[in-house]
UniProtKB/TrEMBL annotation:
Species of origin: Umezawaea tangerina
DUF8129 domain residues: 130-174
Residue runs in coiled coils: none
Compositional bias (Acidic residues): 70-82, 95-112
Region Disordered, residue ranges: 62-125
Record protein name field: DUF8129 domain-containing protein
Amino acid sequence: MKQLPLPVRIAAGLAVTAVERARLLPQQLAGLPVTVVSEALQLSMRLQQQVTELAIKGDDVLAGMRPPQEEPEWATFDEDDSAPAAPVVVRETPDETPTDADSDDDDDDPWTEEERAILAEPPAALPAYDELSLPQLRARLRVLSAEDLEELLAYERAHDDRPQFTGMLNRRIATVRAQT
């Protein structure tokens, strides 16, 4: 027997496939809404991921173009706005590790030993000072006197000497002194 032309054979195969699919259609209709919704959600998630990746890449590029801010411009406080720009002079704390030249003087001086012992303990005004974050400390500064603030500043300089903390303490000391 001679074979039929290719287009006729393809048409016959399509017809048989259509009939087979038509018989399976009632079984597939029950799961069709779930499948459509699932695929739509997957597409939505992929699109969101791509948009987020583009935003992250854009942030990386733009961050390299502008320098980081020391203190964000939104972080202003009432005392910062009204405080005069006068520098605060606070006495320096002695170095905890004396050199060979000072060791004779410092070992004999009981006041130096007492000052070191005082600086080794957290300030009495805020016993939990070491555990406070910058915002937590800022919230507690309004009730402290200038002497308490100076004690905190000396303790900070003797221990961690964090610029954000010392700057905030200096500004608060200036504000308290200006109010008195």
